[in-house]
Every structure is written in structure tokens, then in C-alpha cells.
């Protein structure tokens, strides 16, 4: 087989492969977009509950025992892995 003929076949195969991938990805994007619209139409998101009055969220409770345990673990790790 001639080098030019082999090169032409390689380029044709590359173009065919790249074209197939491009078409597949385009179809994938279109189908995903359509599925998103269909799901949004038939299963809409429930509305967020409205805020009522001056209710503040409860302050996060910090457990002192957990904080002591975490602090001890960090100090122990740092002491063991000191270089």
C-alpha cells in the first residue's frame, strides 16, 4: 500500500470517528435537555416555605467533650508527625 493511500485512509477513519463522537455528544446534550424539561414540567419543585416572623434558627450547640477530644487528637497527631 502506498504511503499517501494509507494516510488518506487514516484521515478518513479519523474524520469518521470524530464525526461519530460529535454526533453522539450532540444527541446526548439534546436528550438530556429534553429530559430535564419533561421532568421539570411533570414534577415541579415544591415552593420553599415562607419565613414567618422573627424566628431565628437555634444557635449551634457546641459539645465541650467533643471539642476536648478533637483538640487532643490534633495535638497528638501533630506531636507524632513532627519532622
From TrEMBL:
<keyword id="KW-1003">Cell membrane</keyword>
<protein>
    <recommendedName>
        <fullName>Probable oxaloacetate decarboxylase gamma chain</fullName>
        <ecNumber>7.2.4.2</ecNumber>
    </recommendedName>
</protein>
<dbReference type="Pfam" id="PF04277">
    <property type="entry name" value="OAD_gamma"/>
</dbReference>
<keyword id="KW-0739">Sodium transport</keyword>
<comment type="subunit">
    <text>Heterotrimer of an alpha, a beta and a gamma subunit.</text>
</comment>
<feature type="transmembrane region" description="Helical">
    <location>
        <begin position="12"/>
        <end position="34"/>
    </location>
</feature>
<dbReference type="InterPro" id="IPR023424">
    <property type="entry name" value="OadG"/>
</dbReference>
<dbReference type="InterPro" id="IPR005899">
    <property type="entry name" value="Na_pump_deCOase"/>
</dbReference>
<comment type="function">
    <text>Catalyzes the decarboxylation of oxaloacetate coupled to Na(+) translocation.</text>
</comment>
<keyword id="KW-0915">Sodium</keyword>
<keyword id="KW-0472">Membrane</keyword>
<keyword id="KW-1278">Translocase</keyword>
<keyword id="KW-0406">Ion transport</keyword>
<comment type="similarity">
    <text>Belongs to the OadG family.</text>
</comment>
<keyword id="KW-1133">Transmembrane helix</keyword>
<keyword id="KW-0812">Transmembrane</keyword>
<keyword id="KW-0813">Transport</keyword>
Amino acid at each position: 500500500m502506498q504511503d499517501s493511500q494509507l494516510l488518506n485512509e487514516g484521515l478518513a477513519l479519523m474524520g469518521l470517528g470524530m464525526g461519530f463522537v460529535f454526533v453522539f455528544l450532540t444527541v446526548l446534550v439534546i436528550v438530556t435537555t429534553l429530559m430535564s424539561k419533561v421532568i421539570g414540567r411533570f414534577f415541579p419543585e415544591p415552593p420553599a416555605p415562607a419565613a414567618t416572623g422573627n424566628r431565628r434558627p437555634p444557635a449551634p450547640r457546641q459539645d465541650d467533650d467533643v471539642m476536648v477530644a478533637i483538640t487532643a487528637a490534633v495535638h497528638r497527631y501533630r506531636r507524632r508527625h513532627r519532622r
